[in-house]
Amino acid sequence: MRQKLSSILAAGLLGGAMLGGTINASADPAGAMVGNPCAGCHGIDGASQGQAPVIAGLNTMYLDMTMKAYRDGQRYATIMDRIAKGYTDEQIAAMSKFFGDKSWPANTQSVDADAAAKGQKLHMSTGCVGCHGQTGVAMMPNVPRLAGQYAGFLNQQMLDYKDAGKAIPPTAMVMRSMLSGLSDEDIAALAAFYASQK
Q1: pTM of the complete model
Q2: Are residues 44 and 94 in the same domain?
Q3: Could you tell me how far CA 47 lies from the centroid of its own chain?
């Protein structure tokens, strides 16, 4: 099984290189081996173009915790829970460092200015600022960056976190409580605000 996984990862690595991905010679080869196959959804080096969330530049601790939560059934997903089951703790650590060492991409996206303004007010009034900072850039290593993330992804994740029928990590239960009092329109406004930030 481990040999088969290595073959699959090697094929993904080759495919990523053929698509234009490059591997920094000083990068951890184990991290590159397990990280490059993610390019199919998350873009080269995790710099997604909008079909999946940006993972380049997210905190290494957060990436590690998130992959383990997907793998261990502690976080609801439609795809990542199945993908994560194929990775060991060591591979997840290498992957997390690989993406954590990258820079956050300078993506731009169009958002409704009125919705973003409403979202900013909600961000400040509902307590989101306490963990996610003034603009969605958290200072704590276990809290994800929201600023500049894709609005569609953020919106869906907040709806999933709000849904009591879907698994979320124990550390995110405070978010479920906070989101439970918000309407779908409020959540969309929050997503617009975060997406509008640099």
Answers
A1: 0.82
A2: yes
A3: 11
Packing angle of the helix pair 113-125, 184-196 (nearest 10 deg): 100
Looking at the structure, do residues 64 and 120 belong to the same domain, yes or no? no
34-87 confidence digits (pLDDT tens): 788 899 999 999 999 887 999 999 999 999 999 999 999 999 999 999 999 999
Please list, in sequence order, all residues whose beta carbon lies within 8 angstroms of the beta carbon of residue 178, skipping any fewer than 6 positions away: 126, 127, 128
Domain boundaries, position 187: 113-196
CATH of the domain at 168: 1.10.760.10
Torsion of Cα atoms, 54 then 57 then 62 then 67, to 10°? 50
**Residue 189 shares a structural domain with residue 139:** yes
* Nearest-angstrom CA–CA distance, 107 and 109: 7
Tokens (6 digits) for 122: 């909600």
Q: How many domains does the chain have?
A: 2
Of 37, 143, 23, 17, nearest to 86 by C-alpha is: 37
Residue 157: both structure tokens together: 């994740």
